[in-house]
Amino acid sequence: MALIVQKYGGTSVADTEKIKNVARRVVATKEKGNDVVVVLSAMAGQTNHLIELAKEIQAAPDSRELDVLLSTGEQVTISLFSMAVKEMGLDAVSFLGFQVPIETDPIHGKARIIQIPPEKIRRELDKGKIVVVAGFQGITPSGSITTLGRGGSDTTAVALAVAMDADLCEIYTDVDGVYTTDPNICPKARKIDKICYEEMLEMASLGAKVLEIRSVEFAMRYGIPLHVRSSFSDSLGTMVVEEDESMENVMVSAVTYSRDEARITVSKVPDRPGIAAAIFSPISDANIVVDMIIQNTRAGDLTDMTFTVSRNDYQKAMEIVKRTAQEIGAASVAGDDTISKVSIVGVGMRNHAGVAGTMFNILARHGVNIHMISTSEIKVSCIIDEKFLELAVRALHEGFGLDAE
Amino acid sequence: MALIVQKYGGTSVADTEKIKNVARRVVATKEKGNDVVVVLSAMAGQTNHLIELAKEIQAAPDSRELDVLLSTGEQVTISLFSMAVKEMGLDAVSFLGFQVPIETDPIHGKARIIQIPPEKIRRELDKGKIVVVAGFQGITPSGSITTLGRGGSDTTAVALAVAMDADLCEIYTDVDGVYTTDPNICPKARKIDKICYEEMLEMASLGAKVLEIRSVEFAMRYGIPLHVRSSFSDSLGTMVVEEDESMENVMVSAVTYSRDEARITVSKVPDRPGIAAAIFSPISDANIVVDMIIQNTRAGDLTDMTFTVSRNDYQKAMEIVKRTAQEIGAASVAGDDTISKVSIVGVGMRNHAGVAGTMFNILARHGVNIHMISTSEIKVSCIIDEKFLELAVRALHEGFGLDAE
């Protein structure tokens, strides 16, 4: 007998029939003798629908009230789901964020979990009940509802697994695991059976949408094994676990990409201390995340500064940078919002020299020009023209031997 | 400067445009220098939609989980409404049942309010905020969400008015007040400017749907004046207040009706002690409310027992009664589900003899046969064939001088 936390995403609970299907799975897990804590997202589409309603009233909805609004999505699914379990003859009880409680800081819209006292859930499990917890939401010490940001239900699930000292955390989704790359772009993509936390973390950061980053960080820090799998089939998915020796034999585990990137270049910046802060502080003050940064020194104490932002933030960032450029006496600002990022990830890189070089060669062989490069111990990312993105993904997938046979 | 509690029903907040309109009203009240506490219902139709979802999963949805589900309706409107107020430049804060807290007993689906500590709302009012409270919902001492039953938002509003020691409780609805009878049946119905609690209570019990009964009881017990008015116009509605002398001069204040009644007769019941209990206990055990009861004694220690139930409960009640009739040796059971109830209400009846007789005469003059009669100090109800209902309402409205000129 084990304690298992199962999280089901929005597509898995999109309507009452799907909710019943999920309930059957949970009941089966319980009837094998396990204790089960279920974490649910809102029905697919519901969160967006609520955001649209809010925007009919306020272009930038008040963050506290938006959390009150959005948290209803999970409230609907946990109550319906608990009914479904009861209809099948087992006992269940639903808990909202404030009832567990899932205590968070007061940063509405992207709150962080402070702690989760396990006692209340433990008590209900001991009574033989399936405990159904609303994902994505928490409560501040002063009693306001918070939400954890997009994908927050994954974080709820892993944090609960940690708090309850669970044996396993299963993340059910609409795909059957983590893939070597996006099968929509590369038909030869393969499901990965086992991957380590660090790789999963890089993949999540680099655009793979299957798991939310913070949930992987949490699982890694506390050593909770994650099982990413499909709620529509019984086949095993991808285990996300501690790194082991077998993993080092694989040079590259996955190819990821992020399509919607944009690049901004500030030319002939007077190169003096503090100039980077002058350029980037106003951008971060506007809550825009800068990804890669490259600085090229020219002759005569001048430098060129190039960086990338998400394409959504491109217009806003350009406006800010143009103002800054005038203030600091830079010559010009240029931009390009038709670029994308392609990356390779693998813990094996640590022990294999020349992986980056192989990547550049593969891209060159296919005529793909590289604009910017960024590396870490276990990944290499290249900024390329968006039009080459699919080609680059397939070429790298094949070139690093990831293609399915 | 006064403290005013305003309650808006589901049709007043049915979409985001209507929510903005209501926010304008509330802001206007606040800008006149008043403290305002707003109580909102769910958007019209939302509660029924959620019940349908639940019934797709459980024919008789689990009562605790149904409350979790239904309470989302008000959560949506209070958050959107608070945004609307902020968009207009004033400050607002929303509170759910658990946040106030509105403490109730644990009877899910029809919980009763135990107490409402006023401190938290008071604190926000003192900061100049408009406080927006979810109607219809509460929280048990052990932290489960409850709902107060249909029309429960009226009760929330009045209970808050009591707890906050408010000067006035305004109930905004889609009609412009309480009418002498249903204008859909009787075009000459008039809006009543002032009515006393007792009359309002009888009217609510007798089928007038404008106010929920418990809210009137609460207001009466604590002497909170209610103003029932339209959220779509600025005209004054109906004040519900303590009885005063002027009210006694009016013999009949209103004509009410309840269409969906049904009648069951058990014939030749052996007339011995305990026989009524034998018939009615199984019915109340099935949560069926019996309204009128008539017992006619026959010769030979036999009696006929006739009673009425809501038409919804007719089939179920018939089944129960047929079983009982066999057990107690009654001769037969007959029923009729095409009857209705028409009533006259007025505190003036106390001082005017012959009001009931006048009612019977009016009905007789129009050829309406009376099957059963029930009276109290301030009302007379008659069971008649459903086909005569509209005729009877109009005849009584005219006969007691209620027609508009």
Q: Given the helix and strand composition of chain A, which structural class is it?
A: alpha/beta
Q: Residue-averaged pLDDT of chain A, rounded?
A: 93
The CATH class of the largest domain in chain A turns out to be: Alpha Beta
Using only CA atoms, what is the Rg of chain A?
23 Å
Here the CATH topology of the largest domain in chain A equals Carbamate kinase
CATH architecture of the largest domain in chain A: 3-Layer(aba) Sandwich
Identify the overall geometry of chain A: globular
Relative helix content of chain A: 25-40%
Distance between the termini of chain A: 38 Å
Largest sheet of chain A: 8 strands, mixed
Please indicate the percent range of residues of chain A in DSSP E strands (runs of 2 or more). 25-35%
Query: Residue ranges of chain A: pLDDT <50 for 5 or more in a row?
Result: none
Write down the oligomeric state. Answer: homodimer
Structure annotation, total helices of chain A: 13
Write out the strand line-up for the largest beta sheet of chain A, numbering strands in chain order.
3-6-2-1-9-11-12-10
Work out the number of β strands of chain A.
18
Quickly count the domains of chain A: 2
Largest interface: A-B, 36 and 36 residues
Write a concise keyword list for the protein shown above.
homodimer, 6-stranded antiparallel beta sheet, Carbamate kinase, 35% helix, 8-stranded mixed beta sheet, 2 domains, 18 strands, VC0802-like, 13 helices, alpha/beta, 405 residues, 28% strand
